[in-house]
């Protein structure tokens, strides 16, 4: 079946492409795990000791948790350059903060210390990094809430390395196990015992009531586990409890829990996912206990970098030498951080050192360096001679090549490039590659892959401005965000005679220092008019114009640039058309307020057709997700027309979580083989842009039930308030290069057939309509090719047993007649009303539904999440599960625990209230309880009697014309089984 074929291909792809990390697995030991400390953190040796202890504890715990298979062998800690040097600190080589597996940094809003792993891929795909705060590492009082640090590290490592997900769910903390059973806490395994309590303020609490509309415990109810349990699983739920030493496996996995692990991993246990990993396949159990991990400390030095630039004859073509000079000037004058050391080498058949390392101490040194940029070309391309000369530049000053960076730009073929691969690997230098034009040698990226460098691919189409973007993207990976250059605008296009290039650049409050406006042209200097937010005008006379061989006009704004909209108008006064570009770069306005930044990732660096590519953009401010931005990506192939895609943070299709600041999209429009360059553009408007909380975090345990039955509560978890989070960010703009990926195996365009199925529907909801016994289903339409276009039809299945609806048994489950169900275009919310034949109802019965989409070429999409509808009888008692008792809780010594019931608590209006299934929700909202109780009698599902279709077009939040009040739905609560 096509689907299985796809999953296999996808999996294989994932297994061999690990983004960012350079961790190696050697005989069960993880080597070269990098933990980097943010340069803003003050020197603290206790923290380094805590990291060492954590790693040691984690290694033992991991070894036992993975049934003697994996442990931590070598770990490198990057000490920031801001700390006092010590003899024991080694020099950083190819490791960097930006690529670290674990980051130690403070949140921007210092509330809470939840460790988390940035995960944006699907089940089994590796995450980006683990984040710990310094307080988490040094404050032992947090043990009660998170458990020992080594255990937390293993929990996060499983997220990072094996792509498993949490088994708790703060958004859907309870589920109904079915039948007459009481609700249960979302957890794995279900063997955990504890008490369901509702805090009353102070140290008082009572038993939780059941909300009869949902059959779940009321909003605000907490599950407090016993401190001493009999169950050993699972680490992805409660690693903090002493008994927990294992991951949930097939034998004890809780398939009914409404958690992300079930949703993302098709109801498989975490251990089954780990067993399917390439790590597992390449390892076997180890008979003897492993040695303690070796932790080495590395310290970041000054940034040392050499531009190694191709001056072969082909650089004369397509204006490449001029474009190189324009882009490299932007790098030297605007991008590279003060204090860095820069050398310049050129190469053709032989290499020449243009300048040895010079330290960027002031603007005049920046200017001096630009004078060494090449203007003339000679014959031949010998990349290795250029790289070796780069090494000589480093050795000349440092006696070492370790930790130095080479920026290697070439447009030529070179069959001898592999002759220096080993040398490069041994050097400990990082090589960033820029491939210019479509003839750049195919193995160029190997140099970056071997050294952890960035990769860019630049076409001769100057419209994209991508060479400038590449140089702008070469910021230091040191984590010192306040020093990094940020690109606000990057545009280039052919402008007719007397026509204008017009636009607006927004400078937001978080940026504005070192702001440069740079205009380039192809033939003759244009007229420039730039107006700042206060109305001050700058013309070309205010710009430094160089029309000799760089064709650039540059304006540096003194001090911090005015916040607001800067309007530019650039007029081509030349008699013919010419290419004009504008680039705006800046730095943070203040060292204490992190700027909003965007980073772009792809699922892998290489892609074999027809496997789909997934493109991600992370928009954040100081580790807080930023949501509500418009994010567009331009994918530019070596040859052919660029494709523009909008990325979404809507939790649908390629996007695994809504509102986590990760914007995602499938890319399947392959038109040819070779390099594809990525450029990402972020626009945020006043009204929509805001910060958000992290969602996926290690569980903060609210309390324990002690052996004597008393309850010990932990202090409530500190979190930023809504006000702090939503402080007006203003309007922002950002443009960044997302590097490049290489595609192979694409057939000739006219032979490409449709092999891409519709994406998995992950937001199916269902509700029994209390008026006429119709089930009302709602979901967002997928596309023809994943999340693009329009599918052809749907298959819907129902069952009293949710397990029957999973992939594998879906085909055999009872079909829902979907005659008359029209398929909407991708992204449109659609509805379907359905009434089974001979439908009789029994109180508390759950009916489950699942759906999948099929496209016009019979490509079958993955089975959706499984949605549940509950039948409720009027006789159902509207109040408590058990008699209300009031007791008091122990508190931990430092505890300031107090909870005052909010109005919400009193009225028990949970966020996970089920939606109503009626046409007029204005009425329903006030009379929901009464109306639902109308549903009565016993249930057996047989056949299909009648169907009504109701479709909502684009107005997904206007509930009056829906058959379901979508706005009242907490998606996770209802749709994840
Ligand atoms: Ca997302
Ligand atoms: Ca398709």
Q: What structural keywords apply?
A:
977 residues; alpha+beta; Rossmann fold; Jelly Rolls; 7-stranded mixed beta sheet; 19 helices; globular; disordered N terminus; disordered C terminus; binds calcium ion
C-alpha Rg, in Å? 30 Å
- Please state the oligomeric state of the protein chains shown: single chain
Question: Given the structure, what is the number of helices?
Answer: 19
Bound molecules: calcium ion
Biased composition (Basic and acidic residues): 892-908
Pfam families: CLCA (PF08434), VWA_2 (PF13519)
Transmembrane segments: 931-952
Organism: Podarcis muralis
Question: Your description of this structure?
Answer:
Strand 1 (24-26) and strand 2 form a beta hairpin. The protein has a 7-stranded mixed beta sheet. A 6-stranded mixed beta sheet has the order 20-19-18-21-22-23, sandwiched between helices. The two termini are 25 Å apart. The protein has 5 domains: 20-164 and 265-299, no CATH class; 302-477, von Willebrand factor, type A domain (Rossmann fold), CATH 3.40.50.410; 480-591, Sandwich (Jelly Rolls); 606-689 and 729-751, Immunoglobulins (Immunoglobulin-like); 765-876 and 933-975, Immunoglobulin-like, CATH 2.60.40. The radius of gyration is 30 Å and the shape is globular. Helix 2 (45-65) packs across helix 5 (149-162) and helix 10 packs antiparallel against helix 11 (363-370). It has 977 residues and is an alpha+beta fold. The protein is built from 19 helices and 54 strands. 17% of the residues lie in helices and 30% in strands. The structure holds calcium ion (2 copies). The site of one calcium ion has 7 residues, from strand 39. Residues 304-474 form the VWFA domain. This is Calcium-activated chloride channel regulator 1-like. Residues 882-891 have a biased composition (Low complexity). The chain crosses the membrane at residues 931-952. Pfam families: CLCA, VWA_2.
